[in-house]
Write a structure and sequence with these properties.
Elements: H1 9-24, E1 36-41, H2 52-58, E2 67-72, H3 77-85, E3 91-95, H4 96-104, E4 110-114, E5 121-125, E6 141-144, H5 154-160, E7 169-172, H6 178-183, E8 189-193, H7 194-203, E9 209-212, E10 223-227, H8 229-234, H9 236-255, H10 257-267, H11 277-291, H12 295-300, H13 307-320, H14 332-335, H15 348-357
Parallel strand pairs: 1-2, 1-3, 6-7, 6-8
Antiparallel strand pairs: 3-10, 4-10, 5-8, 5-9
């Protein structure tokens, strides 16, 4: 008796339809399965800018599709992207340019969903600083962390802003003391990410001003959900479930930031022991919320990444970071997919509600 299964007309049609869906790039429905344990890395410490990962886990947005996700802190966007590409984590978040950089250096990465549209790379000054425009930075001291993801893009920002970089006095520092140097007025300015520096400066009683690189035609996206292309090819349903859970957490957070903060401190109780923890969390979350509401999400749905912006980011990475002759420019279709994004949208009333909660941060990103 043959052990080969009988191929009925119904199963043949289902198989043909499934193959056609894969070939056309359509999202495949996630099939319920036994709980799957997955690992997930943040780009940095647990904070307001990556709080959505804890919301996705705590609210069961991943669990309802059979995913048991362990969330771990990161040690910088580039190390996080490298760890994801190397398969040390199943999924994770990192700023888009770090993912592109790692892909250019040969580690396979694909970005499944965008959680923010401005990494907030910038030059920061105190509110009472006489520095009002980028040109005013000439002759001044700027403290920078050379390993920070913003650092390679500082020269092109200065050039586009009409600043003579040779007239700036650079001070390379450890990230642990960067903000303290500005608060003590031992330097005139800082370079870095506003979304990370602002919580520290606000908690110290300062309301800094930021000169954003993005205002000079530098679309440098914030955190994106990433995995390995092999995982996407092998289990697109799992990738879709990860995207669905994360964007659902985005919507929840945008509409109820207070509940999201309560979840964060429940999920990461040790963070409540940080000095002025609630204020620091709110500042980082508020800035994240504001830049998560940019046009790509409003027009195309949560998680959508604009291919034109990605094409620009790829060029910027190849011109400013991936300059080794061995580095290879990633193909746009290989580094970015919107296959699973755009399904979840906010109404005009919901966008207005989200905006009203973070109006105090509009000036930070203007």
């Amino acid at each position: 008796m043959s052990s080969r299964p009988t191929l009925t007309r119904r199963t043949a049609l289902k198989a043909t339809a499934g193959a056609a869906a894969l070939a056309s790039g359509l999202a495949t429905p996630f099939v319920a399965r036994a709980a799957t344990d997955l690992t997930f890395t943040l780009p940095w410490l647990a904070e307001g800018s990556n709080l959505i990962a804890y919301v996705a886990r705590s609210k069961g947005f991943w669990a309802k599709n059979g995913l048991n996700v362990t969330v771990s802190r990161g040690f910088g966007s580039t190390p996080a992207a490298e760890a994801i590409g190397a398969g040390k984590f199943d999924f994770g978040m990192s700023v888009a340019t770090s993912g592109i950089e790692i892909a250019a250096k040969g580690l396979p990465l694909v970005q499944l969903a965008t959680t923010g549209y401005d990494a907030t790379m910038c030059i920061a000054v105190l509110e009472d600083s006489p520095i009002r425009t980028p040109k005013d930075l000439e002759g001044k001291t700027i403290a920078s962390v050379v390993t920070s993801g913003d650092y390679p893009f500082r020269p092109i920002f200065l050039k586009r802003a009409g600043v003579d970089e040779s007239k700036i006095k650079p001070v390379l520092v450890d990230p642990k003391v960067r903000e303290r140097l500005l608060l003590d007025k031992k330097v005139d300015a800082l370079s870095g990410f506003a979304i990370s520096m602002a919580p520290i400066l606000y908690a110290a009683g300062q309301k800094p001003r930021f000169m954003l690189y993005s205002k000079y035609d530098l679309p440098l996206y914030h955190n994106c959900l990433m995995t390995q292309p092999a995982r996407l090819a092998k289990d697109p349903g799992q990738c879709e479930a990860m995207v669905d859970g994360l964007v659902e957490a985005m919507k929840f957070t945008l509409l109820d930031p207070q509940a999201a903060q309560d979840i964060f401190f429940k999920e990461v109780p040790e963070m409540a022991m940080v000095q002025q923890a609630k204020e620091r969390l709110w500042v980082g979350l508020g800035i994240w919320m504001y830049q998560a509401m940019y046009a790509p999400a409003r027009t195309n749905g949560l998680g959508y990444g604009d291919p034109k912006d990605y094409a620009t980011m790829i060029d910027l990475v190849m011109q400013n970071i991936a300059t080794d002759p061995k580095d290879k420019k990633p193909e746009l279709d290989a580094i970015l997919t919107n296959r699973f994004t755009g399904k979840l949208k906010l109404s005009d009333a919901e966008w207005a509600k989200a905006e009203s909660a973070v109006t105090e941060f509009k000036a930070v990103l203007s």
